[in-house]
Amino acid sequence: MAEPVRVRRLTDQEGQKLQQIVRRGSTSSVRYRRAMMLLASAGGNRVPVIAQLVQADEDTVRDVSHRFNEIGLACLDPRWAGGRPRQLSTDDEDFVIQTATTRPTKLGQPFTRWSLRKLVAYLRKVHGHMIRIGREALRGLLARRGVTFQRTKTWKESPDPDREAKLDRIEEVLDRFPDRVFAFDEFGPLGIRSTAGWGWAAQKHPDRLPATYHRTHGVRYFHGCYSVGDDSLWGVNRRKKGATDTLAAPKSIRAARPDGAPIYVILDNLSSHKGADIRRWAGKNKVELCFTPTYASWANPIEAHFGPLRRFTIANSHHSNHAVQTRALHAYLRWRNANARNAPASAARKASAGAYVPSRPQREHTSYPVRNSS
């Protein structure tokens, strides 16, 4: 009489792995059922009992047991059969991929994107290259070829006719006069509300912020300035970002360099940056306004420094009012400037250039730092 089919004795690692799969479940129903078969067989159950337990054929239980005795836990992964012969040639698959990645309107269809159903219907009607394929087969083909369903993205190209000239000028002043180049910009509006962010916390126990439904504090705008040579960032919160508010920034910068030598201020094309009063004042005080091209505010050096400022002071915050919010911004700016990467070089330049002297805008608004150059 033949010996009953059963798995060999499990090792501790094999037993723990099978127990984990059975207790926690598996993304694959095949692996889950096969793990149950092996555990049941290791527990002394006969093949008919195991087959009834997992609702499988007895021959399947025997095959899995024999495979485990041969190759161990690798038997949990099925050996899929080859299936029926391919119905589509490589050229047919290429045509399907080309069609799927082409906008339907270019092919005379009255919609802006394909669904699987619409694409299948279209492929069956293409004159001279009719392809019969089911939706699931089409889904699998697209996945194999790396074509996924993605959200459309938008982009802008600068229409500025002087784009290259403006970028060249910005690069020139940054290269030739870094100690006399400043970058200016605003961000906002900044409201008084809880702002989501990121932070370390126990798993599935994130830090929670109270929701704010009544916002009665109005908004503010952060006017920031970055000194390229000193690698220092400073700024002030204001109620608006009009021409008058913008003019205060280059005036403070000019007060920081009272030696009369030219300075260069990089800023974007916001209308309040290009007013007649600002241009007139800049011309009289040897301040060159270097505007970034249209839709190219990324060329402003301050943009890279605004990211951390917002991430570490605005995100993940719950400020009670604008005064508290402003103090948080200024506290971070002091920390940031004290821990700048080139702090030693910056300190040496400051020592050689002279001591800081507070200007009238700085005293009034705790705004831009100024210094008296010798």
What does this protein look like?
With 374 residues, this protein is of the alpha/beta class. The chain contains 14 helices and 5 strands. It has helices spanning 12-24, 29-42, 47-54, 58-71, 90-100, 116-123, 135-144, 163-176, 243-256, 276-284, 303-313, 322-338, 343-353, 360-365; strands at 181-190, 220-227, 232-238, 263-267, 287-291. Strands 3-2-1-4-5 form a 5-stranded mixed beta sheet, sandwiched between helices. A hairpin with a 4-residue loop joins strand 2 and strand 3 (232-238). Helix 1 crosses helix 2. The longest helix has 17 residues, at 322-338. It starts with 11 loop residues before the first helix and ends in a 9-residue tail after the last helix. The relative contact order is 0.09. The model is unreliable at 343-374 (pLDDT under 50).
Percentage of residues in DSSP E strands: 5-15%
Shape: elongated
Main sheet: strand order: 3-2-1-4-5
Largest sheet entry: 5 strands, mixed
Low-confidence stretches: 343-374
Report mean pLDDT, rounded to a whole number: 84
* N-to-C order of helices and strands: HHHHHHHHEEEHEHEHHHH
| Structural class label | alpha/beta
**N- to C-terminal distance:** 108 Å
Quantity of strands, as a count: 5
- Rounded to an integer, what's the Rg over CA atoms? 34 Å
Number of helical segments with 4 or more residues:
14
Helix content bin: 40-55%
